[in-house]
Amino acid sequence: MTRPPPLDAPADRPLILVANDDGIDAAGIAALAAALDGLGTVAVVAPFEEQSAVGHAITVRDPMRVHEWPFEGPRGPMWARAVTGTPADCVKIAVQKLLPRPPDLVVSGINHGPNTAVNVLYSGTVSAATEAAILGVPSLAVSHAAWRPDDFEPAGRVAADLAARVLADGLPPGVLLNVNVPNRAHDEILGVRVTRQARARWEEEFEERRDPMDRPYYWLGGRFVDLDGGTDTDLAALADGFVSVTPLHLDLTAYDHLDAVRALTSETHV
Ligand code: MN
Predict the structure, then answer these.
(1) Ligand 1 center to 237 CA (angstroms)
(2) What is the dihedral of CA 169, 172, 174, 175, to 10 degrees?
(3) pLDDT digit string, tens, across residues 71-124
(4) Rounded Cα gap, residues 59 and 127, in angstroms
(5) Exposed e or buried b per residue across 167-200, where buried means at least 16 C-beta atoms within 10 angstroms of its C-beta
C-alpha cells in the first residue's frame, strides 16, 4: 500500500472535500475526485464501507476510526481518508478535525443510482451535502441515474461545471444543490433543468424467507412509483434527458400550516 501524501492545501487554491455513501473504493467517487482535480485541492473523506440509504445517521455509540487510504487521481496519489462511519460523519470529522482549514466546497457522489423525490430523505449521498450546509459550507450532491453505471465521465463533467460556478458565486446559506445526471453520453444530455422533488413513493414488499433454523427473516424490495406527473420535477427532467438540479434547504417546517396547527393546539392545556 502506498502511503498517501500529506495534504498540501495552499491558501490561494480552493479546498474541495469529496465524500460519498457508496464507500471510498466506489467507482463514482474516483470519477468525481478526478473531475474536480483541476478546480483546486481535492481531499477525499469517505465511508470505509458502503452506507447507501443510511440517511443523515451519525455515529454516537461506537468509536470511529480514520484510515489513510490509497486513492489514485489523474495526476498520481490523492489525499484520502476512509472513516468507519456514515456520510454525515465523514463531512463532520473532515471539516472539524482532518482538514487544515474549512473546505470551500463539499461535493458528494457520484452516487451509483438516482436520488430523486422521496429518496432524498433516505440518501446518504445527499446527507453528506446536507451536513456541509449545516456547517456553513456550500455543497452539491451528485448522482448518476443508472443503478449499474458503467460510465461516470458525463456526470463528472457536469459536477465540475457546477462546482466551478458554486466556488465562484457561492450558494445562499442553508441551501444545497441536489444534482441528478441522466444515463446518457455527455453530448446526448439535452441541458439542465432546475426542478422540484417529485411526489413519489415506494410500493414496498417485505419478502418473507426462512433461515436454516426455520425462523422467518425479511427482505425489503419494491417498485418506485411517480405519483406526480408534473413536467417540472426531478423525475421528469431525467426522463426527458436533462440534468436535474434541485435546490434543497434544511428547514422542514411546514410554514403554510402554522395557523392551522395553532388552531389545532389552542385548547391544549399546559
Ligand atoms: Mn449510494
Answers:
(1) 20
(2) -80
(3) 999 999 999 999 999 999 999 999 999 999 999 999 999 999 999 999 999 999
(4) 14
(5) beeebeeeebbbbbbbbbeeeebeebbebebbeb
Average pLDDT of the residues in 199-216:
95
CA gap 187, 154 in Å, rounded = 9
- Taking a C-beta distance cutoff of 8 angstroms, is the pair 207, 144 a contact? no
Using the mean position of ligand 1's atoms as its centre, give its distance from the Cα of residue 267 in Å.
46
Helices 153-169 & 27-36 angle (0-180, nearest 10): 50
Ligand 1 centre from 266 Cα, in Å? 44
Collapse the DSSP code of 193 into the 3-class scheme (helix H, G, I; strand E, B; otherwise coil) and give the result: strand
- Provide the pLDDT confidence category of residue 214 given band limits of 50, 70 and 90: very high
Neighbours of ion ligand 1 (CB under 5 A): 21-22, 52, 111
Q: Are 34 and 61 in contact (CB under 8 A)?
A: no
Question: What CA–CA distance (Å, rounded) separates 36 from 12?
Answer: 16
Strand partners, 210: 216
DSSP reduced 3-state for 250: coil
Cα 28 to Cα 104, 143, 163, 211, 263: the distances in Å are: 21, 9, 16, 34, 49
Q: What is the pLDDT of residues 244-257, one digit of tens each?
A: 999 999 999 999 99
- With contact defined as beta carbons under 8 Å apart, do 113 and 25 qualify? no
Quickly tell me which residue has 399546559 as its cell. 270
Ligand 1 centre to CA of 23 (Å) is 8
173 C-alpha to center of ligand 1: Å?
Answer: 26
CA of 19 to the centre of ligand 1 (A): 11
Distance of CA 225 to the CA centre of its chain: 22
Contact (Cβ atoms closer than 8 angstroms) between residue 125 and residue 177: no
pTM over 0.85: yes
